[in-house]
Amino acid sequence: MPRAAWNRTWRAIGGFFRDFAISSPARFAILVFVSLILIFTALLSLPIASADGRGTRLADALFTAVSTVCVTGLVTVDMATHWSAFGKAVIFVGVNIGGMGALTLASMLGLIVSKRLGLRAKLLAAGDTNPLRSHGGPVSESQTVRLGEVGQLLRTVALSTIIIEAAVAVLLYVPIMRAGYSWLDALWIAPEYAAMSFTNTGFTLNEGGLEPFQYDYFFMTVIMASVFLGSIGFPVIYALSKQLLVPRRWALHVKLTLVTTVILFVVGAGAFLALEYENPGTFGTRDAWDTTFQAFFLSAMTRSGGFSVIDIGELNGSSMVVGSMLMFVGGGSASTAGGIKVTTLAVLALAVWSEAKGRTSVEAFGRRIPSDVQRVAVAVLAWGATICALATITIAQITKAPIAEVLFDVISGFGTVGLSTGLTERLPDPAVYVLAVTIVMGRVGTVTLAAAVAATSRSQHYSLPVERPIVG
After folding, report:
1. What transmembrane ranges does the database entry give (predicted)?
2. Residue 429: other Cβ atoms inside 10 A
3. Counting Cβ atoms within 10 Å, is residue 263 exposed (0-12), middle (13-18) or buried (19+)?
4. Contacts for 386-389 with beta carbons within 8 Å, 24 or more apart?
5. What is the mean pLDDT of the chain?
């Protein structure tokens, strides 16, 4: 084919994807994620990706690809022994790509295709990076990232990922060697843990996982800090990088994210400490200091980190309920964490409080939260609960496993956390596929998913008569 014909063909293909991204950014984002999952499934299925050189079953390769791209951390194979160096490198690349987020990644691809970040590309990026834009209504620019700053925000996504992971890797290098690994092994293990913690994935690709480091409190604290930075969201990182020492100028989204995150972190740790301190299978054999520290570590990991130094299957049922609640909430909007997001919980809690106080509006930090944002929060909660309920019923019916274990692993998948009672590794293939779909739906986001399945956006130019049903 002549060169001119090739150029016309590529321009036509590029124009098609650019128009598709502009006309339906949510569907385009899902297309990008599904394409990435298929690519990584193919790579992980190759014989060179497995340690024994015989290839990996489709169900295991697909689930690992989903767990990698969606930065979840649930596994159906032993991550330390099953994969070769090539397979582990593929997984390392996958978690960093997935950690950038569906719409942010889609925006970057659109930027590469069009060679410039125009107004519509900025609007596309704002769909993910601006958590209050998902409903498509009017939003005060001061509440989150301004439209003109989206280009800078995209650069912040890439730069913050590189800088934070590099800093974490440097901090972890010496503790890893202190645990008995050679300097050469530490050169790989340090960046691995940096990537798995900042992206909130929770994979441990070294044999023994966190066991060699569980009493190294510096190592564990760095991991917690990395998970925290990844879970608060890129808009918050961006805002703090500009106004760290001026809290009064922080946007409402930043304040709600940080306050809710800290409250859940402390309350979760207190709950685990109270419920597990006498459990010999978890904290019962540890001293007071170590028990307290591990309770905070577990609280941080249930927010989407996915690392664990205890057997999750040994938790008391009450602790599993607490963990499920924390996993369902997840982290911040436009972050590497999953769940319904802390700002969703904050808005719902403020709405309930305002209703109890008889207030006509929902307010926080001297700002009023519009009703359309409250409706989006309710929709996100309803979608998330429905997805988890249907997946739990389906997997429980397939496996006949205890419902507590099924519910915990399903919510862990939906919230892209990665903690497991041990059930996921024992799932039959049909249940594996169901859980994989749940993970994708949780990672892409309930609002994005709802927008993608809607055929059209229709405007209604009339209002029906009002009638109030009895509620409650």
Report:
1. 26-46, 58-77, 89-113, 153-174, 217-240, 252-275, 325-353, 373-394, 430-455
2. 15
3. middle
4. 387/414, 387/438, 387/441, 387/442, 387/446, 388/328, 388/414, 388/438
5. 82
pTM of the model: 0.85
For 315-370, what is each residue's pLDDT tens digit?
A: 999 999 999 999 999 988 877 888 899 999 999 999 999 988 888 888 888 889 88
- Dist. CA 31–CA 143, nearest whole Å: 30
Sequence-ordered list of residues with C-beta below 8 angstroms from that of 306, at least 6 positions apart, any chain:
72, 73, 200, 201, 202, 203, 412, 417, 418, 419
Length of the chain (residues): 472
- Tell me the CA end-to-end span of the chain in Å, nearest whole number: 69
54 Cβ contact partners less than 8 Å away, ≥ 6 residues apart: 47
pLDDT at 53 exceeding the cut of 70: yes
Mean pLDDT confidence for 21-48:
81
Reported confidence tier of residue 115, pLDDT bands at 50, 70, 90: very low
Phi/psi for 226 (5° steps) reads -65, -45
The neighbour count for residue 54, using CB atoms within 10 Å, is: 7
Q: Is 50 helix (H, G, I), strand (E, B) or coil?
A: strand
Residue 309 has pLDDT above 50, yes or no: yes
- Give the count of alpha carbons within 13 A of 176, CB side only: 26
Residues 6+ apart with CB under 8 A from 464: none
**Cα pseudo-dihedral 52, 56, 60, 66, rounded to 10:** 100
- Using CA atoms, how far apart are residues 472 and 457, in angstroms rounded to an integer? 31
Q: How many helices (H) and strands (E) does the chain have?
A: 19, 2
pLDDT in tens, 198-256: 988 889 888 888 989 989 999 999 999 999 998 888 778 888 888 888 888 888 889 99
Say whether 75 sits in a helix, a strand or coil.
coil
